[in-house]
Hints:
This protein is mostly helical. The protein has helices at 9-12, 17-43.
Amino acid sequence: MTDADVPSSNATKAGSPVVMVVAWLWVTVPFLYGLYQxxxxxxxxxx
Length: 47
């Protein structure tokens, strides 16, 4: 039996869907806000 045959404890433990959604929002909201600010400020360069 090799390590590939034994399921990893990390692979079998899937986090709570609520935690996953919060984690995605924690990253996505600031990223989208940054893109919005970038588009707003860079559009002034082309006026």
